[in-house]
Design goal:
Number of domains: 1
Order of helices and strands: HHEEHHH
Distance between the termini: 15 Å
Strand content: 5-15%
Structural class: mainly alpha
Number of helices: 5
Radius of gyration: 24 Å
Shape: rod-shaped
Number of strands: 2
Helix content: over 70%
Length: about 120
Amino acid sequence: MKRKELEQKIEEAKAAIKEKSQEIENFELDPDDYEKQYDEFLDEMTGEVKIGSLTFDASRILKELDPTAYRCGLNDWLGGEDKTEDRKYRDMAEELEELENQLADLEAELDAIED
């Protein structure tokens, strides 16, 4: 590969790394992806609610009777979760690592031409 082509590919790789880094920096957990875990948390913490001879999950009661409070609680609970454990976040981190490896390979190739 010619020097000029390598330099162009290096610049493209740097731009891709910058873009992916910004994407990772701005990543936020999507509450819709965590409703099941939040429901399990609520149900575990509160237990079943008994009304007469019927029993209900606390998450179901809150979700159906006060969806706003449910959503606020979900968002608050999600604020305590580690975004680095999210699959989408880990995928982006892996993509960033691959881009950085590609950049290192390109720079090594350019150095070999210069020697």
